[in-house]
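Re-running the complex after MR caught last week's input typo. The corrected sequence lines follow. Everything else is unchanged.
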Amino acid sequence: MLQIFIPTLIFTAFIAVLTTILIFCYKLLSSQKKITITINSDKKIKTIADENLLSVIQQEDILLPSSCGGKGTCGLCQCQISPAPNALPTEKSFLQKKELNKGVRLACQQQPSNDIELTIPAYVLNAKKMSATISKVTSLSARIREFTIRLNDKTLNYQPGDYILIDIPKFQIGKFKNDEETNRAYSISSFPTEVINEIKLTVTFAASPDTNVLLDGIGTTWLFDQKEGSEIQISGPFGEFHLQDNDKEKCFIGGGAGIAPLRSQILHHFQQSQGSNKITFWYGARDAESLVYEEEFRKLEKRYDNFEYFASLSESNENRQDLTKSYIHTETEKYLQNHPAPEDVEYYLCGPAPMIDATTQMLINLGVDEESIYFDNFG
Amino acid sequence: MHYIELIFQGIFGENVVLALFLGLCPFLAQSKRVDSAIGLSGAVITVMSIATPFNWLVWNFLLKPQAISPEMDLSFMRFIVFIATIAALVHILEKLIKRFSPPLYQQLGIYLPLITVNCAVLGTSLFTVEREHSFIESAIFATSSAIGWAVACIILATVRHKIRASNVPENLRGAGIAFILTGLMAMAFSAFNGLV
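Corrected-run output:
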């Protein structure tokens, strides 16, 4: 008995001594250096060196968007840091070389050890957290639903093209389980003056294009389970995908649920000014059923001479022989090839990542400058 | 003279990698590039030359038969205790380097914690214990063993760097040719065996 007991005791004591030394060393050696983080050369935050930048910012009630909880997988918490620290491989996969050179980094991957200057987009500083109620759920097609969300007490001063984050709690629906509180980004599909204090979201339940198997999206699974009247927490507005205020011809190209910010922008544009600049909207859906908001845009087309609406169906045009069965960017290309000056047009893209990539490539091949392509990639 | 012999034995005669085949996993994994090989070698040398004398102390004053009391024999615990001290030392070392030399920490950063599970470090500690080295002997033997590991790793890295331009049969590329190279190097090093 003693032969077991004494060695166990000695080993435990030994480990305890080691742990004590370790804790002592950690205390002694962890730098208590104070550093200052200057945000947008205005607000100053004092903190300890080597703390996670995202959590430092969030403690100051700055709602820098982040959906993955700091794992470096959503790429939303972008900010510009000066002097620019080394970029990690996790950051390189989200940022373009141009951005990396400018010092854009993901806040969740940075632990500043010296004073830094931080530039975050101004809209982040204006974003607020608020509670809201789902007042209406409309099925636009089997997979696409429109959620009308009433803001409970605050107003949301958003611009067309902005998005909000919806807090997703822990939940279990059938076999699908979400173990941690997180949030997901959704573009607003209504425009500011449509209904006061209400916003609309157009959400697609993602399905794999090849198999039609529903993919498990945490946010959408949860949102589709919510009934009218459920209360949700949102924060926002966020976004830089805004309409440029000028007289250039504007060409909107959207696919699938990417219609949301484009609908907001187009309707807002005609609401505000009926300028004479030409506007075309190219919308690619999967089949006739998924062709949402078509009526609305056809009406708009009849009412305004300078607006044109085109649609194409990528999978089958069985019920709609008047529409072509093709990808939308090939249709746009046909139009632009006969266009006198495609490089003078502004392009607003929103849709799945492959569609954005293909369209951007097509536009660059036509001689369009990258500067006049604006996109919202929600891949 | 005895100490010089020990140094020679540690680096060449009983090279941890090429004669004893210890610490092979980081040896093969980190020898793809010369700079990472040098980084890891630095970490191994530091950790090994500190951890082995420390383990010698633990052995002689705690674990050795009759170290605490005449009828107590704790020598069976040496594996787990040695690993625990190595792990703790590596942690302290990491903190120390981070505090006092951030550039070195940047360089060694990811390699340091890896050393904890490097069997060459544990192996050297066990050897000094088995051979009943004195404290100074154990320190010298550990340092030279670590240098031996570093020499082997850097040699393999440079050879692999060179071999990138060679026409290696397709199925042997990568790990295959690294194993063959290690074998050839081990054979070459076996020539040192009879010297000491």
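None of the earlier attempt is carried over here. The two ends of chain A are 64 Å apart (CA to CA). The first helix of chain A runs from residue 2 to 29.
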